[in-house]
Amino acid sequence: MIKFRILLTAFLVCFFTVSAFGQSGGRVSDVEVWLKAGGKVDLTDKWEIAFEEQIRFDDDVNALKNFHTEIQLTFKPIEALSLHAVSRYITRNDNSGSIQGFEDLFRYQFGASYKHDLGQLRMKYRALYQHRNEVGISEAQGDIPEKFLRLRTSAEYKIKDWKYDPQVRVEYFNALNDEVGTNNQIRFGFGTERDYKKFGELGFFYLFESSLGLNIKQLTHILSFKYTYTF
Q1: Which residues contact 90 (CB under 8 A, 6 or more apart)?
Q2: In CATH, what is the architecture of 2-230?
Q3: When comparing pLDDT for 161 and 154, which is higher?
Q4: Which H or E run contains 228?
Q5: Which residues contact 66 (CB under 8 A, 6 or more apart)?
Q6: What are residue 64's DSSP bridge partners?
Q7: What is the pLDDT of residues 33-46, one digit of tens each?
Q8: 29 and 221 in contact (C-beta within 8 Å)?
Q9: Against a cut of 0.85, is the pTM above it?
Q10: CB neighbours of 62 closer than 8 A, spacing ≥ 6?
Q11: In which element (H, E) is residue 152 found?
Q12: How many CA atoms lie within 13 A of 118 on its CB side?
């Protein structure tokens, strides 16, 4: 319990430090809701495929932000290590500027995750390369792919005789192509997941996301709900 308190304290210090910096200058804040539903299948002892449908709302949950379909293939060479390949087809609602409407994007990721136990803590580390571009628009027509390196650390505290083990997450988004106008970001998360056996797994997370290195910070508060069924 002491280790989790130390971890949670460090998480809160980082969270409020970023939030305080955001309040010290100009900032733009928003509230979003993410709704996710999907399933996963164990193909073999080492291979797993998962799919997910997701819809997101922004503008203080007053507007549709996007919806997407995602497929993830995972290979586990050993129990603690997983290799991931993910594809996502996104339909985004562009409701700002002179040209508005829905636009289609495609995103793919390659990466790995590693997990281990530290007493009652389940630690997990993930690194992903992410590439996203608009479908049907070439670079000559103005589409420049967005590229990120994403690094995430998460910890789950295992509580005896308790099904809602708390989790904390910190993820850093490193923009690899500055010419797009993208920026580095950091995302904090706190929540829980529970497996209801035959019914499936339910998860809830509160996420806080902040841009880094901008004069006017972009702050986003996110409520994320997830349902996953294992076939």
Answers
A1: 66, 67, 68, 104, 105, 106, 107, 132
A2: Beta Barrel (2.40)
A3: 154
A4: strand 216-230
A5: 55, 56, 90, 91, 92, 93
A6: 57
A7: 999 999 999 999 99
A8: yes
A9: yes
A10: none
A11: strand 146-157
A12: 14
Contacts of 199 (CB under 8 A, 6+ apart): 229
**Which helix H or strand E contains 106, and what residues bound it?**
strand 101-118
Q: One-letter amino acid identity for 34?
A: W
Q: Residue 204: which of 36, 13, 9, 19 has the closest Cα?
A: 36
Closest CA to 202 of 71, 34, 36, 32: 36
Domain ranges of the chain: 2-230
Q: How many degrees, rounded to 5, is the angle at CA 105 between CA 57 and CA 178?
A: 95
Q: Is 56 exposed, middle or buried (0-12, 13-18, 19+ CB in 10 A)?
A: buried
Instruction: Report the distance separating Cα 91 and Cα 88, nearest Å.
Output: 10
**How many Å from the N-terminal Cα to the C-terminal Cα in the chain?**
34
Residues 138-153, mean pLDDT to the nearest whole number: 88
Residues 6+ apart with CB under 8 A from 170: 11, 14, 152, 153, 154, 186, 187, 188, 189
Q: At a CB cut-off of 8 Å and minimum separation 6, what does 166 contact?
A: 4, 8, 156, 157, 159, 190, 191, 192
* CB burial string 73-88: b at 16+ within 10 A, e below: ebeeeeeeebebebeb
Nearest to 227 by CA among 207, 206, 205, 203: 203
CA–CA separation, 184 and 174 (whole Å): 5
What is the three-class DSSP state of 52? strand
